[in-house]
Amino acid sequence: MAPPDVYLGELEQLILLVVLRLGPDAYGNPIREELIAAADRHVGRGALYTALERLEVKGCLRSTIGDPLPERGGRARRYFAVTAAGRHALRQSRRVLLGLWDGLESTLEPS
Amino acid sequence: VSHPAPEPPAFAERLLQRALARSGYADSIVGDLHEAFDQIVRLHSSRYAAWWYRREALRLMLRYSMRDRRGATRRSPALPQSGGQAMDWLMMDLKLAMRALIKRPLLTSAVVLTLALGLGTNAAIFKMIDALVVRPFSFRDVDKIVMLVESVPNDGSRRETVAPANFVDWKRRSAGGALERLAAFEWWDVNLMGRDVPERALGFYVSADFFRVLGVPPALGRGFLPDDETPGRNRLVILSDGLFRRRFGADRSILGQSILVDAVPSTVVGIMPPGFDFPLGAEIWAPLAFDGKTAALRTSHYLSVLGRLAEGHTQTEAQAEMKVIGERLAHDFPDANKQRTIRVFSLPQGMLDAGLGPVLSLWQAAGLFVLLIACANIANLLLARGAERGREIAVRLALGSSRARIVGASMIESGLMALLAVPLSVGVSWAALRLIRAFMPPRVVRFVAGWNDMAVDWRLVAATTVLAALAALIAGVLPALQLSRGQVAVALKSDGRTGAGPGRQRLRRALVIAELALALPLLVTAMLSVTSVSTYLTGWQGYDPRGLLTMRVVLPESQYPDAERRRRFAADAIDRIAAQPGVDSVAATNALPSGDSNTSRKIEIDGQSIVDPSNAPRVDYRAITPAYFDTLRLPLRRGRAFTSADRADGSPVAIVSESMARKYWPARDPIGSRVKIGDIWVTVVGVCGDVIHDWFDRRNAPTLYRPSAQAPTEVLMLAIRTAADPLSLAPRVRAALTAVDPAQPVFDIMTMGTVLSEKTIGLQYIAGIMGAFAALALVLAVLGLYAVMTFMMTQRTREIGVRMALGASARDITRLALWQAARLTALGVLIGLGLAVMLGRLMVAGLLGVVSSDATVSIGLALALGATALAASYLPARRAASVDPITALRTE
User: Are residues B32 and A65, on separate chains, in Cβ contact within 8 Å?
Assistant: First the structure.
């Protein structure tokens, strides 16, 4: 399963990174909170879930259902994990970005 | 602390679950939100949390509904090829339009609100017409009921009530034809006595077939039978459900019993079902019985005649048959019936108050003006937005979108807004109708059939929807056409800001001019009706209406058969009332100014020969007690007032009004002249001032006064002058009258102010509704001008920058902008003046000269409108002038 290059949007990159950081606790609410805390990105719930779904469709994320919990009205959490394809895509994005940055540091140095 | 944790709002949760149904994550998302909700509850209050939850849920739903749409368009081929192509496009355009509306909440709500006001007021007037003119009666087969009137050919609009002999002939000669039955009715208001406090009730003498013609049988007991129409055997009554409950406690044993009606024992034979009060809120009915003399009367016209169409026959057939009968009667009785014809109307048309139609059409016209203004405003808003979207549309055109589709898409947008406005508009109608109903005095309401049916119903909703579609078309089509006509290349090159071509500018200006032109006539007509109401209520009456209490007593003939008894009652009543504390003076007459009734008599002036005996001069006739002029403060101009010396056995005297003196004795003093009234000659002893009796057609009507001691009447209208609050005297005065004769009801106890107000209630409604429309039109037009000026100034920012860079001062710029506004305003107001003159004429014609059009009012209002419009443009002008030229030049 070596997927062809998947292009990742900025929000998608952030989400994948946050999911990696959160490890086993990565479900909707913490992902959103972490996006706010670590990346200062106030993402609406709708945008977040549609992005998560999109990432799963692209094969970058995989989700598993936990146990039903009373504090959720008997509903289960959906935990997300980054797939190999997701890691690959992240690495690729990083490479592209760094390549582009190369030689521009001095130009963009804050004066 | 272990109380159960609050749960998220269940309804919102269910709704959300449903909206997310197509997402694989639905459960997890709802669960996440639940968890977050618990946290919010802990941090804030549970009320805040519930609000928060609803907001989040709504956002999610919106997001997902949009994603679904996007998903759908992505999945479908770029250009749908299937047979459902048009449908797919429509769906896509609908979705796009919906998104566009959501994206611009301010614009959307401005449009929706404007539309709702315009539509709602129109729908309310529509419902008034529907309830009062089209279907005021709710009888089951109302289409089968017709009304028959006599008419004089050389005056086609005049309808006359029917002479008894003619009715009898109609009935006989029409038998077996298109009309199954005919029934007549005649006004008969009565005193109900015995039991309890005596009261006045509105009743009618009706043919035995009356209830069968209407198709409404009594709920209890029986209806009238042909045999009941025999004089002497007609002491029977049928009661309305309301009267039955109010006066007889709904006691069924009243059936077959005798009650006192005008002091005559009458047997109750039936009770009508609840809600039946035809005609005019009647409460009691008795058989109409003609004695031989009455049945032969062909020159007194006082019967109203109803007919019921036979099965399978139409009104047209009935009209044709009656025409023949009418011609034959004219031939058989040339003296009375020459040139008389018979006309058949539908029941609503026949019962329609002649003044109502023109007034309602005036309102509907005014309403449509307002709606047009609203449409112009909306078109303008859409144009402004279109200008911003010029580039988007140019791109669509460049990519191969057809112009028809772009027009269609734009129409869909305005259509959606119209649809959104419908429920809001129904709310506006509901409120408007409630307000309209609330101001009607209950004493008047019963005379207006259908008044209480003025409420929101499916007809109103349907009318609103149709109007909304129409408004969407009017408001949407102009901007749409304008947009699709854009030059692709030009629009693509520009940044959209300057995307307003000269054509579009012209259209916006035209719309503003139209708004102002439509608003002015409404302002003028509203002002005319408001001034006429206020002149009638507070202006000259010929007497002093303040501090007057009025009331009415009608003496039944059975108890007061002769003049002497009536005279004694009046004298007694006046003595007792005058003795009450607080009463300054008291007088009686047969008809007070502005009262419901009027009496006129034929006269003959001594020494002036009568040219045409069938058209003898008539004057208003009043029988008054000596204190009448003092009590009303009606000035005596010359001669003397009546005194207690003018007794029945004294020489007969009269006082004439100034208008009568002018008309019949133009060259000389009438005092000492003789006038023949009835069979006796009376001598004029004084001349008094004029009064307004009826605002509509008898200002300063020639009036002749007689001392009531010499000509006592059954109807006594009492006027009491007091320095105190007039109504505070009512109980004591009533008690004083009861002491004279406990059997007679005293009714219509009102201050003169209330009398005047009720008399002008129609006019007040006209003024109120026209005023509301005018206010609405004014606000919309001024807002429209403001919006257009703001927009145009923004569009010209660059130009203004250049001007300022070249040395124009802020004042120059302001003047430039105001000059532009002034030209628009002047043109609009000028056209408006033309329309105002036309509408004013229509109003004068429709309201029988109650209002008079007045050039100064029109011009004054035109100036005021112009000033308001300029004031509204001042702000955008100032803003334009305060632009920093550097920023202005950089905007591109």
Answer: no
Question: Best interface-test mutation with A: which of B2, B7, B14, B27 has the largest number of A CBs within 10 A?
Answer: B27
Q: What's the rounded Cα separation, in Å, for the pair B295 and B299? A: 11
Contact A77 B24 (CB under 8 A): no
Cβ distance of A46 and B67 shorter than 8 Å: yes
In angstroms, the separation between the Cα of residue A28 and the nearest Cα of chain B is 6
Q: Name the stretches of chain B with pLDDT < 50.
A: 1-2, 70-83, 495-500, 698, 892
User: Does residue B4 belong to the interface with chain A, where contact is any CB pair within 8 Å?
Assistant: no
Q: Which pLDDT score is estimated for A82?
A: 93
Which of A42, A45, A52, A79 best tests the B interface by mutation, with the highest count of B CBs <10 A?
A45
In SS3 terms, A11-54 reads as: HHHHHHHHHHHHHHHCCHHHHHHHHHHHHCCCCCHHHHHHHHHH
Cα distances from B451 to residues B134, B135, B769, in angstroms, run 12, 11, 16
**pLDDT at residue A79 is higher than 90:** yes
ipTM computed for the complex: 0.88
The answer to whether the Cβ–Cβ distance between B32 and A77 falls below 8 Å is: yes
In angstroms, the CA B34 to CA A75 distance is: 9
Whether the bond between B80 and the residue before it is cis, its omega within 30 degrees of 0, is no
CA distance B333 to B321: 18
Model confidence at A16: pLDDT above 90: yes
B221: left (phi over 0), alpha (psi -120 to 50) or beta: left
pLDDT of residue A87: 92
User: A63 to chain B: nearest residue by CA?
Assistant: B25
Q: What is the DSSP letter of B744?
A: S
Using CA atoms of B733, B738, B741, B744 in order, give the dihedral in degrees to the nearest 10: 90
Q: Which helix (H) or strand (E) holds B585?
A: strand B583-589
Q: How far is B409 from chain A (nearest CA, A)?
A: 28
Strands (E), B735-833: 747-751
String of b and e for B522-557 (b: at least 16 CB within 10 Å)? bbbbbbbbbbbbeebbeeebbbebebbbbbbbbbbe
Distance separating alpha carbons of residues B431 and B456, to the nearest angstrom: 10
Would you say the pTM of this structure is higher than 0.95? no
Whether A45 sits inside 8 A of B31 (CB atoms) is no
Check if the beta carbon of residue B125 is closer than 8 Å to that of residue B768: no
pLDDT tens for B282-326 read 889 988 888 878 888 887 788 888 888 888 888 888 888 888 888
List residues bridging with A81 in a β-sheet: A62
Residue B47's H or E segment, with its range, is: helix B46-75
Residues in B closer than 8 angstroms to A49, CB to CB, are 23, 25, 29, 60
Interface contact flag, A45 B8, Cβ < 8 Å: no
Task: Report the 10 Å Cβ neighbour count for B383.
Answer: 22
Q: Are B733 and B720 in contact (CB under 8 A)?
A: yes
List all residues of chain B from 8 to 37 with a beta carbon under 8 Å from chain A: 8, 13, 23-25, 27-36
Q: Taking the mean position of all CA atoms in its chain, how far away is CA B364?
A: 10
State the CB neighbour count (10 A cutoff) for residue B224.
26
Q: B715 pairs with which residues across the strands?
A: B554
Beta strand pairing call for B618-624 and B653-657: unpaired
- Closest-CA distance, B75 to chain A, in angstroms, reads 15
Q: Which residue from B minimizes the CA distance to A26?
A: B32
Name the residue among B643, B637, B706, B697 with its Cα closest to residue B677: B706
pLDDT at A1 over 50: no
Predicted confidence (pLDDT) at residue A19 exceeds the cutoff of 90: yes
pLDDT at A30: 92
Distance between CA atoms of B503 and B498, rounded to whole angstroms? 13
Which residue in chain B is spatially nearest to A65 when comparing CA positions?
B28
